[in-house]
Amino acid sequence: MTELRATAAARANIALAKYWGKADEQRNLPAVPSVSVTLAPLTTVTRVHFAPGLIEDRFLLGGRAAEPGETARVTRLLASVRQLAGLSLFAEVESDNQFPTASGLASSASGFCALAAAARAAAGLPFDRNAISALARAASVSAARSAFGGFVELPLAAAGEAEHAARPIAAPEHWPLRVVVAVTSEGRKEVGSSSGMLHTARSSPYYASWVELGPRLCAEVRAGILARDLERVGVAMEQSTFAMHASALAAAPAVIYFQPATLAAFACVRGLRERERVPVWATADAGPHVKAVCHEQHAAQVQQALAQTPGVLRTLLCEPGAGVEVS
Ligand code: DP6
Fold first, then answer.
1. 51 alpha carbon – ligand 1 mean position (Å)
2. Could you tell me if the CB of 286 is within 6 A of ligand 1?
3. Residue 14 phi, psi dihedral angles, 5° rounding
4. Is 241 in the pocket of ligand 1 (CB under 6 A)?
5. What spacing in Å lies between the alpha carbon of 169 and ligand 1's midpoint?
6. Which of 122, 129, 156, 188 is 20 to 30 A away from residue 255, measured at CA?
7. In angstroms, rounded to a whole number, what is the distance separating the alpha carbons of residues 170 and 159?
8. Residues of 161-170 as b/e, b for ≥16 C-beta within 10 angstroms?
């Protein structure tokens, strides 16, 4: 019998137009469409081995047994692959991030995408980016976007659509932007994105406005990408960021992802733009880090300014990268 094992590599992505909130909690469908850029070199490598003799799925994250909650999400994904492939074996999963885990750098997106690709391949299912994206999306919505390289969108699901997947907008070569990540904390985030958005949906008076605004900002970011218009993308991205965080801040009790260094980094980016005339815009996800988007020729200046901002621990330089790969 052939060995039921495979390895996949997927990159993180950051949303330029944010997903925040679920249209269907059970099926994990987003309440708003989103647009992202897949980021090199932030890569997760995941190995899956469906092996006889195991009595449950085993999940090692960075060489250590993962927490039960993380293992449960992995098991759910593996269960749908087993069902699809007609397999009954449990699996051993090893996942390694080549960047800090749970530091708000979208490690769950690259992780679930790499897991979806490796699990399908290990089970003998064909390489199919749409199927990988849909499988990853069911585990974590943002993971759907890491199946594709470059600029990617995840539209709203059509009524009754079974396999809802992301789709590419433009290849990495379309626009060699740079993303400077300002890391502001090494710790794990306090409120995960899933619970943060569910709590926002249940208790924030601004959630309905956020859901109404989302599609317009998404269309704006998409059009800006196609036109390679950084200002158009940047302005809509910042509005998407702050509208998303505003909805979370108005929840009861508030969901606060910003730390002092987050605001200092935003002020740094605004200062570069207004005082130095550097075209740069920033975003933050469900964590305290700030990601600044700029042209290649300004990346060094942006990186230096952010590195000198109080509370910024270090910076990472990223660029549009490839979609998921199986080896
Ligand atoms: C703020 O994809 O982690 O990063 O579907 O519940 O797993 P679940 O949520 P997740 O949320 C990501 C939220 C975000 C914005 C984004 O990536 O679009």
1. 31
2. yes
3. -120, 140
4. no
5. 19
6. 156
7. 26
8. eeebbbebbb
Q: How confident is the model at residue 2 (pLDDT cuts 50, 70, 90)?
A: confident
Beta-sheet pairing, 58-61 with 91-97: parallel
Segment 45-78, tens digit of pLDDT: 999 999 999 999 999 998 999 888 889 999 999 9
How far, in Å, from the CA of 142 to the mean position of ligand 1? 5
With H, G, I as helix, E, B as strand and everything else as coil, classify residue 28: coil
Q: 79-86: long-range contacts (C-beta < 8 A, 24 or more apart)?
A: 80/135, 80/138, 81/116, 81/119, 81/120, 81/123, 81/125, 81/135, 82/50, 82/123, 84/120, 84/123, 84/125, 85/120, 85/123, 85/124, 85/125
Please give the Cα distance from 69 to 216 (Å, whole number).
Answer: 35
Residue 22 has a CB neighbour count (10 Å cut-off) of: 18
Atom of ligand 1 nearest to the CA of 198: 6
d(C-alpha 10, C-alpha 276), whole Å: 36
Cα–Cα distance between 201 and 181 in angstroms, integer? 28
**Closest-lying ligand 1 atom to the alpha carbon of residue 139:** 7
Reported as a pLDDT band with limits 50, 70 and 90, residue 224 is: very high
